[in-house]
């Protein structure tokens, strides 16, 4: 399974970005997936996850009003729409997948992307 993130960049506070995670070499729909982030000097934290069929979503409280997770089976891609970005959202964002139809952010994910940097100033 290969995960490739894209869509990161530098934006001003209040701006928006949409992260993408393309999945290859895998039966895409068999994996639940999640977004995680790690800021410098801080532990990695879960941001959002989505079930294999895309019907069950979870976004952590701290960003729930601003971030939306989704997936497009036809494109084998997961997304994280981030609005009203704040400087504290600055981090490396990673997507991850687990060979389960449903998972929690606290679970151990088997596959990880290389990350995409988001910087909010």
What does this structure look like?
The chain has strands spanning 2-6, 9-11, 17-24, 32-38, 45-50, 57-59, 67-72, 77-82, 91-98, 111-112, 116-120. The protein is built from no helices and eleven strands. It is mainly β and 121 residues long.
Shape: globular
**Rounded average pLDDT:** 94
Number of strands: 11
Poorly predicted runs of 5 or more residues: none
Report the total helices.
0
Alpha-carbon Rg, integer: 13 Å
Q: Report the helical percentage.
A: under 10%
Class based on secondary structure composition and strand pairing: mainly beta
Taking the alpha carbons of the first and last residues, their distance comes to 34 Å
H-E order:
EEEEEEEEEEE
Approximately how much beta-strand content do the residues carry? over 45%
Which sheet architecture does the biggest sheet show? 7 strands, mixed
Helices, strands, pairings?
Blueprint: E1 2-6, E2 9-11, E3 17-24, E4 32-38, E5 45-50, E6 57-59, E7 67-72, E8 77-82, E9 91-98, E10 111-112, E11 116-120
Parallel strand pairs: 2-11
Antiparallel strand pairs: 1-3, 3-8, 4-5, 4-9, 5-6, 7-8, 9-10, 9-11
Keywords:
globular, seven-stranded mixed beta sheet, about 120 residues, mainly beta, four-stranded antiparallel beta sheet
Nutshell version of this structure?
0% of the residues lie in helices and 49% in strands. With 121 residues, the chain is mostly beta strands.
